[in-house]
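S.,

As promised, the LLP run. Input:
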Amino acid sequence: MGNNFEFYGCDAAELAREYGTPLYVISNDAVRARCRELRESFTDRYENTRAVYACKAFLTQEICRIMKSEGMGMDAVSGGEIYAEVKAGMDPGMLVFHGNSKTKAELIQAVETGVGTIVVDNMSELELLNEIALEKGAKPGILFRVAPGVDSHTHSYISTGQLDSKFGFSIEEVENHAAKAAMDMEGVDFRGLHFHIGSQLHENDTHVMAVKIVLELLGRLRDKYGFKAAELNCGGGFGVHYKDDPETPGISMFVDPMMAEIDSFYEKLGDERPMVTIEPGRWIISDAGITIYEVGSVKVNGAGKTYVGVDGGMPDNPRTALYQASYEVVVVEKPDAPKDVRATIAGKCCESGDIIIYDADIPAVERGDHLAVLSTGAYNYSMASNYNRLCRPAVVAVENGEAHLSVRRETYEDMISRDL
Ligand code: LLP
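Predicted complex:
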């Protein structure tokens, strides 16, 4: 005690004792600081802009309330996300609904709920949405998702802007007929374009490249059809620090060069520039979260490698298995001890790929010690599963040095509650 690892003023060993492990811990202060930076460096700095939190990174009722109080919009990529956001009190007008394969039921839900922006992915969705809206007497604002044909430097599973992508319209399709079709539809208010080129990007060059391509397309739509966009949504994808990456950059590094391109394009054109939207997910929440585990086994295997087994694994953090992500880890009871053991931190599932961290340098640990894996705020809780019937961990929020339960731990009973 006393020397334990602290996370935003809370002793991690005490959190483990009080709430059990594995445990997700989110610093509301850190989340709010990122929202503040978004205001200072983007929405207050540039007129007619907005920031929308991509909730797929981490979604709880509490985070929705925080986003609402910070004046953020939120995105959604399913009826379930829309439901959760509205239930938490988000204004539906501030929601942006994405998806490459939205169901009819989801489109009806979005129209009936009054979702502010629907990002249309393809022609059949456009036609269906128009029909639904006409039937309901609504006229939702829509953007087209376009694939700008930019290959971002990231893991191929989270790269989305290339030509051969499952997401969005091709530039040609928008230019040749989709934009005109949308302009002529009575049921939709065609407001502009959206792109999202990939996630966990550390450089701004691909965002800038995509902006240029999309601006050129908007220029051609203006010449051909007299279309003047009301909104340009540049997606998310702003990278953060994990183990081997550079420190999380300020948002200015991404938005300033994009805004310079956009402003100069509209200045030359002599038109008012459309509203510019960004949709950060990971950048807001990743560094704000950690996962605390208890060590259950320590052994040296036949190959001479040390394995530290913990009480969670790929069900609470699938990112190492899916994207070869690498995380930093701190031994909670010995945050400052020399790291003289090289160990692989393994989950408890019946699967060799269930590893949280390969080859971490840590102080020697034993059963009962706790590990804090850093920067797990994004895409851990939101991607968690019940594989091997492990209960999904609780989420604890810390604010001003005080902790409270934000999501209770799943129980065995929860897990069989839908079985008939
Ligand atoms: N907007 C759209 C349309 C998106 O598809 C995404 C993420 C975002 C915004 C937010 O991207 P972010 O700022 O968080 O990079 N599960 C993967 C990440 C998938 C991202 C999917 N789309 C992972 O764990 O790395």
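DSSP finds twelve helices and 20 strands in the chain. The CA atoms of residues 333 and 401 lie 19 Å apart.

- D.
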